[in-house]
Amino acid sequence: MARKPPKTQAPSKEARPVGRPTDYREEYAEQARKLCLLGATDKELADFFHVEEKTINNWKAAHPGFLQSIVRGKDLADAEVAASLYKRATGMTVKETRMSGGGDDEGPAAVETIKEIPPDTQAASLWLRNRQAAKWRDKTEQDVKTTAEVVHVYLPTNGR
Predict the structure, then answer these.
(1) What is the pLDDT of residues 37-74, one digit of tens each?
(2) Which of 50, 61, 88, 135 is the most buried (most CB within 10 A)?
(3) What is the pLDDT of residue 8?
(4) Got the DSSP string for 50-105?
């Protein structure tokens, strides 16, 4: 009687990847960081990489470097906007260089001026509403309690 060859084990399900292979590439992390510095949202990242927004979320979960790149880019962009808003809310001084036309024998000359920009109340209001919402929010909360009153109406049945 011929002996059967030993059975080889089939690869376990854990060893085989499930679903289609990822389109993710390592260079996407740096591209995503730069896009986030420009203010890109996750939806805009998905459009750029020609994937669904859910795929961006999957990549963030599966690739820590990709997630960190996005966080770094968004945090830096947000910090720059916050700094600009703060300057606008508190007022600032800026230097301006303008070209001034000279006389007939002189060419244009650069003239530097210093300009005072006063505080912007709308920017200050926005800053305070977001940073100290409990004190500065526009919405007032009212505690309104409603009660329902049940009224029973008895109608004559006319002998029916």
Answers:
(1) 999 999 999 999 999 999 999 999 999 999 999 999 99
(2) 88
(3) 57
(4) TS-HHHHHHHHHH-HHHHHHHHHHHHHHHHHHHHHHHHHHH-EEEEEEEEE---SS
pLDDT at 26 over 70: yes
- Against a cut of 0.70, is the pTM above it? no
Geometric angle at alpha carbon 77, from 91 and 112, rounded to 5°? 40
Are the beta carbons of 45 and 30 closer than 8 angstroms?
A: no
For residue 123, what pLDDT is reported? 92
| Of 73, 77, 76, nearest in space to 30 by CA | 73
- Least Cα distance to 65 among 23, 27, 35 occurs for 27
| Residue whose structure tokens are 């329902």 | 148
Describe the crossing of helices 53-62 and 64-90 by its angle, rounded to 10 degrees. 110
Select from 90, 88, 108 the least CA-distant residue to 100.
108
Reported for 114-123, long-range contacts at CB under 8 A and 24+ positions apart, including other chains, are 116/91, 117/88, 117/91, 117/92, 117/93, 118/91, 119/88, 119/89, 119/90, 119/91, 120/88, 120/89, 120/91, 123/85, 123/88, 123/89
pLDDT the model gives residue 135: 87
